[in-house]
């Protein structure tokens, strides 16, 4: 790893110098001290940013592994014209706390603890699976999720749903690049495609008959969403029609019992990516729907989806999101089991795969500066038709479109673009049979994993579980028990310190990812500085972070093995 230590004059700490380490291989600034971090970031910000005409501010430093997934040649900021649609409509930082530019004169990194918590907890989502008796018979006990933006607005998305016509629950994390459009579409649609792929023929026939007769269709999924999660209401009818075409295709296959779970996930990923490509090629009179289809196809997203059904866990991954299992061993120690591989230039399997798929004459140009064709970090993704279509098709689609510049779409064909497609959305699927010692699954975008190792994440979750249990006073009941008595007990528990602890484990992980010092402890000053970075600087220091942690029910898993001896 090549690291450049840059020293700012006038900023001294007890060791005589305030150093910032810039890792050329990691592409993000690593802060090696805390006391002067705020003033250092401000001074370095103003010397590290260059204005490109009247466009956005971008860093002039683009190292090999810069986590900005598409190299930004130039990007203007345009207002959306009438009839077009901005697709970035999810929450971002509260504007009262976050600076909008490094050029602001009154630039402050100071936040109160309450303000820090307000920012960190804004995207919290949690759900506990309970039956009518208040117990969980599901192998999923609960899940907790959160997001923190670096891009403005955030380009990550997440999904969680219970399957209503098949068994199981699904959890997805989607990391967008070149905008949020593709990640938004995939987060809305992919779980439906997987669920339909798993449905028996009879259920598909019932749905088709109901649609033909214009009768209500039984829901396929029960979504678990954050209040700020949005949908493409303008194009939902087209999405439904294309999903219908897919299940009609499955009915035409005339096969029973249908796909295995692994086959279903692979087929769903590939079919959705194909639909994204075809939708933008189809004639479309509605300009708004046309613009959405363009933005979805010409942006991109990586995806990691977990399907849990009893003791059967399947994880499908395309790109560089990651899923890691936390295991508590018999001696009480914790171990880590990665269930995905990062699909990028650092993975030997991916390099060999791409070399097999393209002529030998292209071997030296497939990856340039550790990017696919010198442009894209992940080697698998949805969308990104610039790396899938022929030059002629790209030119034809963009030539016949409206003002694509207003949609931040630019036609750029990289050098050595000879034998597309270079990119695929086909996932790798990993199967794991859950055991009682498998306690939780962490699914997250690479914004978390570039800050924390797999082992550190598992250690933090395990430590958080222990800390929560230590803070919880036992609930001792005095008969008769009534609602007022229970309410008082809960208030007592809250007053004993739980309020100061992150209840949501995803928030706890994000707090450590951006605020930890070299000793692994959260530094309040560094945390405040990282949260108040201006929009034109934040991406130099951190990426969007999305985390979902799924806790497993050990009792249910043990019951399964007792009943299947």
TrEMBL record:
Pfam families: PP2C. One of its GO terms (molecular function) is [pyruvate dehydrogenase (acetyl-transferring)]-phosphatase activity. Gene3D superfamilies: PPM-type phosphatase domain. SMART domains: PP2Cc. The keyword Cytoplasm does not apply. InterPro entries: PP2C, PP2C_BS, PPM-type-like_dom_sf, PPM-type_phosphatase-like_dom. It comes from the Eukaryota. One of its GO terms (cellular component) is mitochondrion. The keyword Hydrolase applies. Keywords: Hydrolase, Metal-binding, Protein phosphatase. Residues 140-552 form the PPM-type phosphatase domain. PANTHER family: [PYRUVATE DEHYDROGENASE [ACETYL-TRANSFERRING]]-PHOSPHATASE 2, MITOCHONDRIAL (PTHR13832:SF343), PROTEIN PHOSPHATASE 2C (PTHR13832). Belongs to the PP2C family. This is Pyruvate dehydrogenase phosphatase catalytic subunit 2. It comes from Cyanistes caeruleus. The gene is PDP2.
């Amino acid at each position: 790893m090549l690291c450049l230590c840059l020293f700012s004059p006038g900023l001294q700490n007890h060791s005589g110098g305030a150093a910032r380490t810039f890792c050329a291989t990691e592409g993000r600034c690593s802060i090696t001290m805390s006391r002067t971090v705020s003033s250092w970031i401000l001074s370095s910000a103003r010397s590290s940013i260059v204005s490109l005409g009247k466009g956005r501010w971008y860093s002039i430093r683009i190292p090999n592994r810069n986590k900005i997934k598409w190299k930004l040649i130039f990007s203007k900021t345009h207002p959306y014209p009438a009839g077009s649609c901005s697709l970035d409509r999810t929450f971002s930082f509260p504007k009262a706390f976050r600076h909008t530019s490094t050029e602001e004169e009154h630039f402050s990194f100071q936040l109160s603890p309450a303000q820090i918590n307000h920012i960190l907890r804004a995207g919290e989502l949690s759900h506990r699976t309970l039956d009518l008796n208040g117990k969980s018979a599901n192998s999923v006990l609960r899940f907790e999720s959160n997001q923190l933006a670096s891009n403005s607005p955030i380009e990550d998305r997440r999904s969680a749903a219970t399957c209503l016509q098949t068994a199981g629950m699904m959890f997805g994390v989607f990391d967008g690049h070149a905008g949020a459009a593709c990640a938004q579409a995939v987060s809305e649609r992919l779980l439906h495609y997987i669920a339909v792929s798993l449905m028996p023929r009879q259920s598909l026939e019932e749905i088709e008959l109901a649609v033909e007769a214009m009768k209500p269709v039984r829901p396929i999924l029960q979504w678990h969403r954050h209040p700020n999660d949005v949908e493409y209401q303008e194009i939902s009818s087209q999405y439904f029609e294309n999903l219908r075409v897919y299940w009609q295709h499955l009915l035409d296959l005339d096969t029973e019992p249908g796909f295995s779970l692994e086959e279903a996930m692979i087929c769903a990923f590939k079919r959705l990516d194909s639909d994204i490509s075809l939708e933008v090629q189809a004639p479309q009179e509605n300009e708004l729907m046309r613009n959405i289809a363009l933005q979805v196809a010409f942006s991109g997203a990586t995806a990691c989806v977990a399907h849990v059904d009893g003791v059967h866990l399947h994880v499908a991954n395309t790109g560089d999101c990651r899923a890691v299992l936390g295991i508590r061993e018999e001696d009480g120690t914790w171990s880590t089991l990665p269930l995905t591989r990062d699909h990028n230039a650092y993975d030997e399997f991916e390099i060999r795969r791409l070399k097999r798929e393209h002529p030998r004459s292209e071997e030296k140009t497939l990856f340039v500066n550790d990017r696919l064709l010198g442009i894209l970090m992940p080697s698998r993704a949805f969308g990104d038709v610039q790396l899938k279509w022929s030059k002629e098709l790209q030119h034809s689609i963009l030539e016949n479109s409206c003002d694509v510049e207003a949609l931040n779409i630019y036609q750029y064909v990289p050098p050595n673009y000879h034998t597309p497609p270079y990119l695929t959305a086909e996932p790798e699927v990993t199967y794991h049979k859950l055991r009682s010692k498998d306690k939780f699954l962490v699914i997250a975008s690479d914004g978390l994993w570039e800050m924390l190792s797999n082992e550190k994440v598992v250690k933090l979750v395990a430590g958080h579980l222990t800390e929560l249990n230590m803070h919880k006073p036992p609930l001792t009941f005095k008969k008769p028990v009534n609602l007022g008595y229970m309410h008082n007990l809960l208030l007592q528990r809250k007053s004993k310190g739980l309020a100061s602890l992150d209840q949501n484990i995803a928030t706890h992980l994000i707090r450590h990812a951006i605020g930890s010092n070299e000793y692994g402890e959260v530094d309040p000053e560094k945390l405040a500085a990282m949260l108040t970075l201006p929009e034109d600087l934040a991406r130099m220091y951190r990426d969007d972070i999305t985390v979902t942690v799924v806790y497993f029910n050990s009792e249910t898993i043990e019951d399964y093995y007792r009943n299947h001896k």
